[in-house]
Amino acid sequence: MLTACNMEVPIEEFFEPLKLESPPNDLDYRRIEGHLQAANAFTRTAHQFVYIIDYYKRGFLFVSDNPLFLCGETMKDVRKMGYQFYQKYVPAPDLAMLLQINEEGFDFYYKLPTSDRLNYAISYDFHLEQPSKRLILVNHKLTPLVLDANGSIWLALCVVTHSSNKKAGNVNITKKGSNIIYKYDLATKEWLVQKRIKLTRQEKDTLTLIIEGFTAVEISSKMNIAEATVRFHKKNVFKKLEVKNTAEAISFATNYNVFK
Has this prediction a pTM greater than 0.85? Predict the structure, then answer.
């Protein structure tokens, strides 16, 4: 059984893989104010929890308001805690996993051409302990937001949602506009290359209408196809996404954007 992390993990370990050699100045911070305003605007219209990591200040520059993912803390408190938040609310096995993902993710990142680095995102799942001591599995996506003068990540945008998976891990790196997914094997410490899940046009339309809450009968009418065909497309979608029900399909589609 997983329990909250009581061990002290030095925060410095999260920053050891970074190559930070070009510290931003006060003018640089004034210039990125627009990013903070955009993040704040996004959180007013979406259910996801959003925060921005400042790797130079080794903390969080922005934290949105979502009680489920704040674990009982306030936005202000989480900003102040920074990476201490992980220490307090992530179970020990998952915290060790996050350190591994952090190291391997930055190793992958620094092998990329500087001009390409803003196009990549990494996704993985881990548990958070709620005030009730109940653990929830969340999906965490991280993408570079602003690079420093040397092409290292200065700011990273993070989006947190419920995970559609059953256990922690599930580490994927994707590139904007690419059909390739790099899946990390935590046991062998290898990156495996896979292609994105491909849905047919009718499967995408069916899934879209399912997400919008329409029944099979209503989808049949909207798509002008037989109800049996709707069920056929739905069955294929669930099989491709490796999910068992509508809730899992919606969560998977939200986390992994299968509509590309």
Answer: no
